[in-house]
Design a protein that fits this description.
7-stranded mixed β-sheet; 12 strands; 3-stranded antiparallel β-sheet; Rossmann fold; alpha/beta; Methyltransferase-like protein 22 isoform X2; 385 residues; 20% strand; protein methyltransferase activity; disordered N terminus
Length: 385
């Protein structure tokens, strides 16, 4: 998302471009009363990934060339507003996805609860997706790399205020980075600030001991939880002993403990707050797009990072896009807040801020452009002596 503030209006619809690279979609809107899509996000790991504990991937450039070799320039066109034109293709289900839909057909968006048995029309729609051909993009070194998949329920386009229902390139960049630092995540306690669809939390759960998914609404947390339930038994590795889903609204006074007036299964209780505050690692993907929200995010981040023991926060964002070539409306504000953190000279901690090079292996399918950025904020305890 990259435009000036004047370019965004309440009724504007925005669309992520990752769907042009992940071309296997199930559209539920035409079959049932549901505006969700299901997309299979493929990622490739070396066949000895778990055995050797080494990331012996293709380089980012090699992966990009292999993954996108069959996508022609005409298939990556943008419309007059700079939004990607969606390309629909059938694709080949990879081996570890066999019978996925038949075993997970009961998880679908529904206002009345977390689960709903799919009606015959929806099952027919799923069956259509499974009638596949061989047009799925395969990397050239198929003998050395194994295809894995995460299947995500999401919306295809939303207003700017509901972008958490989409999957953005910055989320896939975060997923790649988590795969590259899997040894750091081992047995860690991770909190996802603004989890959205939950895809980054799912990748973190492959390695971390505990993961807490947080967002501002019950509906988003329901979406993230549905996606976790769909995928948890199909991951190539799952070290997470407990996945939590909790409300955390950055725009209200922190901490936003449940006061008893509005009960929610996702409401924060003291034990939940303790779990969030004692995390080792925080992750946040593509939450920098609005100045007021960015300010609220940094207030929350400052509070969490100021609590002992020392912690680290990873943030991904898209500075601008190839098509629009202008800064995100909140990017300048983001930089100012980073500078404010480095200027802190009182209190129990100091902060260091570093931009992380994005030259780590690319496993997911998306356009890793120069405009995608990854930042690391570390808290450093001050010696009281």
């Amino acid at each position: 998302m990259a435009a000036s503030n004047e370019d965004y209006h309440n009724d504007d619809q925005v669309l992520s471009d990752v769907h042009t690279f992940n071309v296997s979609h199930l559209d539920c809107s035409r079959e049932i009363k549901c505006d969700s899509y299901f997309t299979r996000f493929y990622f490739y790991l070396h066949k000895n990934y778990t055995a050797s504990n080494q990331l012996n991937h293709l380089s980012s450039q090699q992966m990009a060339e292999s993954l996108y070799s069959s996508i022609t320039e005409s298939e990556q066109r943008l419309d007059e507003d700079g939004d990607p034109i969606l390309i629909r293709k059938k694709d080949k289900i990879c081996s570890n996805e066999s019978n996925w839909f038949s075993q997970n057909a009961n998880y679908i968006s529904d206002d009345s609860g977390l689960e709903q048995q799919l009606n015959p029309a929806t099952q027919k729609c799923i069956d259509k997706l499974e009638e596949v051909d061989d047009t799925h993009l395969l990397i050239s070194s198929a003998d050395d790399y194994k295809c894995h998949v995460i299947t995500i329920e999401h919306k295809m386009e939303t207003s700017i205020y509901n972008v958490g229902y989409q999957v953005w390139s910055g989320a896939l960049l975060m997923c790649d980075y988590l795969l590259s630092i899997h040894d750091v995540l081992d047995k860690a306690h991770v909190v996802d600030l603004g989890c959205g669809t939950g895809i980054t939390s799912i990748v973190a759960a492959m390695f971390a001991k505990h993961v807490v998914c947080t967002d501002y609404s019950n509906a988003l947390l329901q979406l993230a939880e549905r996606n976790w339930q769909r995928n948890k038994d199909f991951l190539f590795q799952n070290n997470c002993s407990e996945m939590y889903f909790k409300l955390l609204d950055w725009t209200v006074d922190y901490p936003s403990l449940e006061d008893g007036t509005e009960k929610s299964v996702y409401g924060l209780k003291p034990a939940d707050l303790d779990l969030i505050e004692k995390a080792d690692i925080y992750i946040s993907a593509e939450v920098i797009y609005d100045e007021e929200l960015t300010l609220a995010f940094f207030k929350t981040a400052y509070h969490l990072l100021s609590i002992s023991p020392p912690k680290v926060l990873y943030i991904t964002l898209e500075k601008s896009t190839e098509s629009q070539q202008m800064c995100s409306p909140a990017y300048e504000s983001f930089q100012e807040h980073l500078q404010d953190l480095t200027s802190v000279d009182a209190g129990p901690v100091r902060f260091s801020v570093d931009q992380v090079l994005t030259d780590f292996p690319q496993c997911f399918q998306y356009a890793r452009t120069k405009y995608l950025e990854l930042w690391k904020i570390s808290s450093i305890a001050v010696d009281s002596g």
